[in-house]
Amino acid sequence: MRRFLIAVTLFFAAAGLAPSAMAQEAATPEKIALVKRYFKAIDFEKMMSQVTGSMGPAMVEQMKRDNPELDEEKAQKLMQASMDATSAYMVKMMDRSAEIYAEVYTLEELEYMVSFYEDPRGKKILEKMPLVMPKATKIAMDLLPEFQEDMKKRVCAVIDCKTAKKPKA
Fold first, then answer.
1. For a designed S-S bond to 116, which of 19, 122, 123, 144 qualifies (C-beta 3.0 to 4.6 A apart)?
2. Quick check: is 17 in a domain?
3. Is residue 155 part of a domain?
4. How far is CA 81 from CA 73, 78, 102, in A?
C-alpha cells in the first residue's frame, strides 16, 4: 500500500499538483468542468488503474512475506479487496483534485490543456504514457530503500533515535 501511495504522489507531482508559489484562483464550476474534461481526455482513471494494477503482484508478494501463513487464494482475495478499495479511493481523489486543478490553473490554461489532450498529438502522447509509468514506478520503488534510510538518518540527526520511545503497534 505504501508503494501505491508513493506512486500516486509521484503521479500528482508530475501532473502539476506539486506545491507552487503561484497565486491561486477560485475554482469556478466552469473551471471544474474543464478539469473533468481534462481528466477524461488524459484517461486519468485508466492511468491510475494501470499504476495500481502493475503494483498488484508486488502487493501480493509483500502480503505473503508479512503473513507467511497466507495461502495464494486468500492473497488474491486480499489483492482484489485492495484494488476495489483503491478504485473507490481514486474516484474521490479525482473529485477533490478537480477543485485543486481549478484553483491552480487559469481558465485559459485549462482550456489549452483540454484542447491539447483532445488533439491527435496529445492523444499520441497519452498512448505512450503506459510505457513511462511502469518504469517511473520501478524507479520510485528501487529508490525507496535508499530514501527510507536517508530519511531515518536525517530524523535521527534531529532526534536521538536510540533514546526515543518506539510507538506502540
1. 122
2. yes
3. no
4. 12, 5, 32
